[in-house]
Design brief:
- The protein is built from 9 helices and 8 strands.
- It is α+β, with helices and mostly antiparallel strands.
- The protein folds into 3 domains: 29-202, Jelly Rolls, CATH 2.60.120; 215-262; 266-317, Orthogonal Bundle (Arc Repressor Mutant, subunit A).
- Strands 1-2-8-3-6 form a 5-stranded antiparallel beta sheet, covered by helices on one side. It has a 3-stranded antiparallel beta sheet with strand order 5-4-7, with no helix packed on it.
- α2 (163-179) packs antiparallel against α3 (184-202) and α4 (218-231) crosses α5.
């Protein structure tokens, strides 16, 4: 299904989204945080934000991240370039991305009367939905991110009768972040798992013959992830990381890839590059200083990895 769909569709109904405080800049996506949840180590494991962007054409700033992502298009039309193909964007579309999957909205049409594009982005770390401490429960819903079949596409099937249920679930999670009622954090996690189960049950996108890691290993993997999140800008070795999970380096790399969806070094490099982008946009530090602060041992290595992950040079992210 690596096809570019024809333009069309109607604007997706969105009750309470308010983008009046956004300042949009051509070629940039502006984000308004709805909230975030952190684990005991202080690491953000779940966040949701509203995004707005004005018209653009052939704007290529690919990005990857260490979280799972589910996005709902609220308004606007354009083109999404993803790992599985280029897709025409319509209101009501839902896109799903695993860790380490590049994606970029390259085009937003200015002639459709929508005044740009608006979407909801839900990001959550794999560990947020691992069900640590509930070893008797299945985690097969993780397969929608970690064990896809050959028919999987980042754009969810518009013609599937369950697509509205998926969109409504995303809006319901949005409401939990906005309203922050009692136990909203637990409700958000419950609703995200239910959303994943809905996708797993109703969309034929997973490899049901594949196996996930034993759930009892998740606690040890969480220890390693917390160590990586707290030290990714420092000089750390694979042996040090694997020790946090009480595993050999080889076994740790295998379990990490199976449970998070990318290698340990890809995880660290993505975090380093995303931190570098923040510094490039918000400080006057030299590129060499930023590279050093983000854990890269030289500018050449920094520039190479930065280009691999974003498709751009560090200098292009300067305001």
């Amino acid at each position: 299904m690596n096809l570019l769909y024809n333009k069309g569709g109607t604007e997706f109904n969105n009750n309470v989204t308010d983008f009046t405080n956004f300042v949009t800049i051509p070629g940039e996506i502006m984000q308004k945080s709805l909230g975030e949840l952190k684990n005991k180590a202080g690491t953000t494991t779940c966040k949701m934000f509203l995004s707005s962007a004005s018209a653009r054409a052939e704007s290529y700033r690919f990005h990857k991240h260490i979280e799972f992502e589910i996005s709902l298009i609220l308004k606007g039309r354009g083109v999404y370039d993803t790992k599985t193909g280029r897709y025409d964007i319509r209101p009501g579309d839902v896109f799903i991305f695993s860790t380490n999957e590049y994606h970029c909205i390259t085009d937003i049409y200015a002639d459709d009367g929508s005044g740009g594009m608006e979407l909801i982005n839900l990001h959550f770390h794999p560990s947020f939905v691992w069900n640590i401490g509930n070893d008797y429960l299945s985690t097969n819903y993780l397969k929608i991110f970690l064990n896809r079949n050959k028919d999987f596409t980042n754009l969810m099937d518009r013609n599937n009768s369950a697509i509205k249920t998926v969109a409504d679930a995303i809006l319901s999670i949005r409401d939990e972040f906005v309203n922050k009622d009692y136990d909203y954090d637990t409700s958000i996690k419950t609703k995200i798992i239910q959303l994943m189960i809905t996708i797993h049950r109703n969309f034929n996108i997973t490899d049901e013959h594949s196996l996930l890691i034993p759930t009892q290993l998740y606690r040890r993997m969480e220890n390693a992830l917390n160590f990586m999140d707290q030290n990714y800008c420092s000089e750390i070795s694979l042996s040090e990381i694997a020790q946090q999970a009480f595993m050999s380096r080889t076994y740790f790399c295998s379990v990490f890839k199976e449970s998070v969806g990318l290698t340990p070094w890809n995880y660290i490099n993505i975090k380093r590059v995303n931190r570098a982008i923040e510094l490039l946009k918000s400080t006057d530090l030299t590129i060499t200083d930023i590279a050093t602060q983000c854990g890269f041992n030289n500018s050449t290595n920094f520039n190479k990895i930065f280009k691999q992950l974003t498709g751009c040079t560090p200098r292009s992210f300067r305001p």
